[in-house]
Design the sequence.
């Protein structure tokens, strides 16, 4: 590649970076600031991917649910009865797995979408 081409490439990359910095909004809705929290919990675009998790929890998922989901129930708060304890632990495990699937589905597809958007910006089409 010639130096002129290299320079043109670099200029384009800098323009891309500027455009991205000037456009922090969510690319899927009207949210002015795109954050992981917005993407995982609020963005209407990913509502379908949140459904299994919300069915598990029985309501919309909130950011402060995450520590409990990841860490599971506190052992000392579990009932003494072995059957009930196992049921609660099984439910917690189900939530943890559903949460993992949700995060993977949303962030994986979002990354794909961003990659193809950048490819469109750089190569046109
Ligand atoms: Zn959004």
Sequence:
């Amino acid at each position: 590649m010639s130096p002129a081409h290299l320079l043109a490439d670099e200029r384009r990359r800098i323009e891309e970076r500027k455009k991205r910095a000037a456009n922090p909004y969510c690319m899927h809705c009207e949210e002015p600031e795109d954050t992981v929290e917005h993407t995982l919990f609020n963005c209407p675009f990913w509502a379908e991917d949140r459904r299994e998790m919300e069915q598990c929890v029985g309501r919309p998922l909130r950011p402060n649910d995450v520590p409990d989901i990841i860490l599971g129930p506190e052992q000392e708060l579990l009932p003494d009865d072995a059957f009930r304890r196992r049921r609660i632990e099984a439910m917690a495990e189900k939530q943890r797995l559903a949460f993992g699937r949700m995060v993977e589905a949303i962030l994986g597809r979002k990354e794909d979408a961003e990659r193809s958007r950048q490819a469109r910006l750089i190569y046109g089409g």
